[in-house]
Design goal:
Blueprint lengths: L2 E4 L6 H14 L3 E4 L18 H9 L5 E3 L7 H6 L8 E6 L2 E6 L17 E3 L7 E5 L2 E5 L13 E6 L2 E6 L5 E6 L14
Parallel strand pairs: 1-2, 2-3, 5-6, 6-8
Antiparallel strand pairs: 1-9, 4-5, 7-8, 9-10, 10-11
Helix pairs in contact: 1-2
Enzyme class: hydrolase
GO molecular function, one term: hydrolase activity
Keywords: Hydrolase, Metal-binding
């Protein structure tokens, strides 16, 4: 399974157009939106090309391929513009031997974990800082922000491909961070096995 992760769009039309072009060419089956889709939020400056209605229209064009969670800047009013659900605080994606727990990051995050099993991955946004690491038997992944990156990072998005979570730069597809998440599987072979 190949997945693309986009977080913290904050209503930037140029950012989502670039991300959707990458999604269309990537071969990813699902576009996972990690919150803060349409509004810039009261503490943020307006991002380049701020046009929430146009962002909603572009996202609605791929609504059947989207899994989304609610960010702290998303509202019930935003849901009226979108043709896919955005009000859930988290989503869970099951992979063989592990779970991806997707949440925006303002409720659950590395400092306030939901109940997770060994080898599970916490996928979050909110900080606008890319992360791909394994710590204490868990995986932590933040695709950064496509519109308002922080910490001297470039605008970025994430991919899960062949058991590897990678944060890519939005404009030149460079790799910022990556971590392999394939859990250790024991294969037993008996004398009677073919």
């Amino acid at each position: 399974m190949k997945l693309m992760f986009v977080s913290d769009i904050h209503g930037s039309l140029p950012a989502i157009e670039k991300a959707l072009a990458i999604f269309a060419q990537s071969g990813a089956q699902w576009l996972i939106l990690v919150g803060d889709l349409l509004n810039h939020g009261p503490r943020n400056a307006l991002p380049e090309g701020y046009d929430p209605a146009a962002v909603a229209q572009r996202l609605n064009g791929v609504a059947d391929k989207i899994i989304a969670v609610r960010g702290n800047c998303d509202s019930e009013f935003d849901q009226l513009l979108l043709h896919f659900p955005i009000t859930a605080p988290f989503a869970q994606i099951l992979l063989p031997g592990q779970r991806l727990f997707v949440t925006h990051g303002h409720l659950f995050n590395p400092d306030n974990l939901p109940p997770l099993a060994p080898h599970d991955a916490l996928i979050f946004g909110h900080t606008h800082l890319p992360v791909a690491e394994k710590r204490d038997g868990l995986y932590f992944f933040n695709p950064g922000s496509v519109s308002m990156p922080k910490g001297d990072f470039e605008a970025s998005y994430g991919m899960l491909n062949d058991g590897v979570l990678t944060v890519h730069t939005l404009n030149n597809d460079g790799v910022i961070a990556q971590v392999g998440i394939t859990p250790y599987l024991t294969v037993c072979k008996t004398d009677n096995a073919p």
